[in-house]
C-alpha cells in the first residue's frame, strides 16, 4: 500500500513543476507587438506585459484625454498584435460668416401682368459663429456649431411682380386701405392709383386702422427680424417693459402720412397689442389694449386693459395713461376684450364672449371725486379713466376650437351699438351649444336693447353706414350685415351681404347673386358717402353698390383682406 502511494505523490509534485518550467521556456523569447502612433510604426518584443496598457507604458507612449486606443487598453496582448493610437484633439474657433439674403416676390396689381420691379436690393448679413472642431491625427473630422451671434441681419431682395389683369379702372371716393400678401396697400381716387405702404410682409391684421381723415394708418405686424430691422424702415426705441420668458408676438406700427410716398412705416415702442384705434379729434393720440405672450393657444394671455398714449414724430408712445385696470375678463377672458370707440372719441363699447357693454368716461374733479357723464353729449376733454357697465349678457359659445366674440359698431350719431348676441337654445342642447345668433341693437344711454334680426349667424358683423346727409344724420342711415346661408350651422356657413334700414325694415340681399357662392366671414367697410361697400370675394377686393347691387372687382391677386375706408 505504501509502495503504491509513493509514485502518486511524486507525480503530483513533479508534473506541475514541469509545466511551469515548460511555460517559462516557451515565453523566453517574448511576444511581438506593433505600435502605430503619431504617424510611425514601432515593433517591440515584450516578455512580462499582460495588457495593452502595460505595453504602452513600457513603450513610453502618453495618451491624451480624448485619444482612442484600438484594441482597448484593458485587452490582453497576443503575439503579433497591432496596437493603434488615434490622437484626438478638440478646439474652439470663432469666425465671421456671411448670411445669404433671401429673394422674396410679391404680387402687385398696380403693374402689368408679368412685369417685375426691384423694390429692395438684397444685402448679405454677418454672423459671429463659434464652432467646436474635432481633429483625428491632425485631420478635421467633425465641426459643430455651439453659438451664433447675429451682427448684421441680411436684407431680403424684394421683387414685385405685376399681376394687373384686364380689370377696368374704378372710381374710389376717399382713401381705401387693405392688406394684400401681408403688406398694407392704399387706393385713392381710382383703383389704378394704388401703392404698397409696406414691402416686407408681416402685417397680421389684428390692428389695421385708418385715422378719421384717412391720412394715418395704425397696424400690427408679427415681430420678426425682417419686419423690425430690414427694408430701411425706421424703428423706435426697444420697449422698456420686459416681455417675460416669451418673445413678443407682435408690435404696433404707424404711418403718419399715407398721402406722402416718402412716409415710412415706424415701429412704435408698443408690443403684444390686441386692440388699438385712433382717438378722433386728438392729435396723434391712440388707445390700445395689451396681452402677455404665451406658448399655448392662442399665443397670448389678454390683460383686458385699456391705455391711452400720444405718438411722437419718431414713434415713441408718450404720456401713457392707464384708463382701465387689467382684469381676468370673465369667461374665456384670456382671449381678450374687443373695444369700439364711439364717434366722439369719448365712450367705448366692449364685447366679451358672454357680454356686451360700455365704458363710461370718468373725470377726476378737483375735490378728488369722480364724475361719470350719463349722456353722449358729455365733456370734450379726454377722460381720466372708465367705469365698466354691462348692457346685455348671454351664454358664451363653447370654445371647442376657437373663441367667439361679437363685433361692435356705433351709429354715426353715437346713440346706438350694433352687435350680435348668442340666443337661447332651440331644443334640448346646452345654452353654450345653441346655434342661435341674433343681430341686436343696444342703446347705452336709454338702457334698452332689442334683437333686430333673428338667426343671422355668428359672423354677421353688422355695420352702420355713414350718414348720407348732414341734415338728417340720425335717420338717413342703413345697416349692412352678413346673413348666414345656413344660420343653424353658421360657424362653417357662407354668407350673403344684406342691407336694411335703420329700424330693420326693407331688408334686401345685395351681394353675391343667388347663383354664386356666398361670402366667407369677414369685416367689410362702408364708403364715406354710404353708397358702396368694400368687401372680399374669392380673396379679391370688390366694391358693391348697395342700391343697384353692381359689384366691381378691384384686385386680382387673390391675396386681399381687411378693407378700411375713410374720407
Structure description:
The protein has 567 residues and is mostly beta strands. Among the domains are: 31-86, Phosphatidylinositol 3-kinase Catalytic Subunit, Chain A, domain 1 (Ubiquitin-like (UB roll)); 90-152, Resuscitation-promoting factor rpfb fold (Single Sheet). A 5-stranded mixed β-sheet has the order 13-14-16-17-15. Strands 18, 19, 20, 21 and 22 form a 5-stranded antiparallel β-sheet that branches. The radius of gyration is 38 Å and the shape is elongated.
Main features:
567 residues; Resuscitation-promoting factor rpfb fold; mainly beta; 47% strand; 5-stranded antiparallel sheet; 3 helices; Ubiquitin-like (UB roll)
User: What's the average pLDDT?
Assistant: 86
CATH architecture of the domain at 90-152: Single Sheet
What name goes with the CATH superfamily of the domain at 90-152?
A: Resuscitation-promoting factor rpfb
Number of helices: 3
Q: How much is the radius of gyration in Å? A: 38 Å
- Looking at CATH, which topology of the domain at 90-152 would you report? Resuscitation-promoting factor rpfb fold
Strand content: over 45%
Low-confidence stretches: 5-27, 225-244, 373-379
Strand order, sheet with most strands = 13-14-16-17-15
Main sheet summary: 5 strands, mixed
Structural class: mainly beta
Tell me the name of the CATH class of the domain at 90-152. Mainly Beta
Helix % is under 10%
List how many beta strands DSSP finds. 40
Principal-axis shape = elongated
Spatial gap, N to C terminus: 135 Å
Amino acid at each position: 500500500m505504501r509502495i503504491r502511494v509513493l509514485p502518486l505523490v511524486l507525480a503530483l509534485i513533479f508534473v506541475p513543476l514541469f509545466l511551469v518550467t515548460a511555460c517559462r521556456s516557451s515565453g523566453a523569447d517574448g511576444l511581438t507587438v506593433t505600435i502605430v502612433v503619431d504617424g510611425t510604426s514601432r515593433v517591440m518584443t515584450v516578455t512580462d506585459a499582460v495588457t495593452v496598457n502595460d505595453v504602452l507604458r513600457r513603450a513610453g507612449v502618453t495618451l491624451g484625454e480624448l485619444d482612442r486606443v484600438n484594441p482597448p487598453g484593458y485587452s490582453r496582448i497576443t503575439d503579433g498584435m497591432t496596437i493603434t493610437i488615434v490622437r484626438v484633439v478638440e478646439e474652439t474657433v470663432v469666425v465671421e460668416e456671411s448670411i445669404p439674403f433671401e429673394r422674396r416676390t410679391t404680387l402687385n396689381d398696380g403693374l402689368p401682368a408679368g412685369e417685375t420691379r426691384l423694390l429692395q436690393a438684397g444685402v448679405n448679413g454677418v454672423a459671429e459663429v463659434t464652432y467646436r472642431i474635432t481633429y483625428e491625427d491632425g485631420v478635421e473630422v467633425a465641426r459643430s456649431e455651439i453659438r451664433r451671434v447675429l451682427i448684421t441681419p441680411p436684407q431680403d431682395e424684394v421683387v414685385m411682380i405685376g399681376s394687373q389683369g384686364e380689370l377696368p379702372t374704378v372710381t374710389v371716393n376717399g382713401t381705401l386701405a387693405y392688406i394684400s400678401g401681408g403688406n398694407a396697400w392704399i387706393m385713392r381716387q381710382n383703383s389704378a392709383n394704388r401703392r404698397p405702404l409696406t414691402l416686407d410682409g408681416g402685417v397680421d391684421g389684428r390692428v389695421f386702422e385708418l385715422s378719421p381723415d384717412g391720412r394715418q394708418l395704425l397696424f400690427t405686424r408679427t415681430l420678426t427680424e425682417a419686419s423690425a430691422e430690414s427694408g430701411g424702415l425706421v424703428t423706435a426705441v426697444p420697449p422698456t417693459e420686459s416681455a417675460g420668458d416669451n418673445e413678443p408676438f407682435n408690435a404696433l406700427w404707424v404711418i403718419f402720412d399715407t398721402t406722402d410716398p416718402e412716409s415710412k412705416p415706424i415701429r412704435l415702442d408698443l408690443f403684444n397689442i390686441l386692440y388699438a384705434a385712433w382717438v378722433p379729434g386728438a392729435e396723434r393720440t391712440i388707445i390700445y389694449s395689451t396681452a402677455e405672450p404665451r406658448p399655448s393657444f392662442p399665443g397670448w394671455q389678454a390683460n383686458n386693459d385699456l391705455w391711452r398714449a400720444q405718438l411722437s414724430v419718431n414713434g415713441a408712445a408718450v404720456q401713457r395713461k392707464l384708463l382701465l385696470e387689467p382684469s381676468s375678463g370673465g369667461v374665456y377672458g384670456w382671449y381678450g376684450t374687443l373695444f369700439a370707440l364711439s364717434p366722439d372719441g369719448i365712450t367705448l363699447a366692449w364685447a366679451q364672449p358672454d357680454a356686451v357693454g360700455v365704458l363710461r368716461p370718468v373725470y377726476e374733479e378737483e375735490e378728488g371725486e369722480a364724475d361719470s357723464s350719463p349722456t353722449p353729449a358729455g365733456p370734450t376733454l379726454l377722460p381720466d379713466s372708465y367705469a365698466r357697465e354691462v348692457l346685455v349678457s348671454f351664454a358664451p359659445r363653447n370654445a371647442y376650437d376657437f373663441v367667439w366674440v361679437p363685433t361692435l359698431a356705433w351709429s354715426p350719431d353715437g346713440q346706438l351699438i350694433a352687435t350680435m348676441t348668442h340666443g337661447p337654445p332651440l331644443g334640448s342642447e346646452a345654452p353654450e351649444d345653441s346655434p342661435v345668433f341674433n343681430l341686436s341693437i343696444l342703446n347705452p344711454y336709454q338702457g334698452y336693447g332689442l334683437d333686430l334680426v333673428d338667426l343671422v349667424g355668428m359672423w354677421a358683423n353688422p355695420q352702420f353706414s355713414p350718414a348720407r346727409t348732414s341734415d338728417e344724420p340720425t335717420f338717413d342711415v342703413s345697416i349692412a350685415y352678413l346673413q348666414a346661408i345656413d344660420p343653424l350651422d353658421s360657424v362653417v356657413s357662407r354668407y350673403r351681404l344684406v342691407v336694411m334700414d335703420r329700424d330693420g325694415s326693407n331688408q334686401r340681399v345685395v351681394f353675391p347673386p343667388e347663383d354664386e357662392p356666398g361670402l366667407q366671414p369677414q369685416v367689410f367697410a362702408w364708403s364715406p358717402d354710404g353708397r358702396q361697400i368694400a368687401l372680399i370675394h374669392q380673396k379679391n377686393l370688390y366694391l358693391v353698390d348697395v342700391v343697384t347691387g353692381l359689384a366691381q372687382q378691384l384686385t386680382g391677386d387673390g391675396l386681399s383682406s381687411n378693407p378700411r375706408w375713410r374720407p
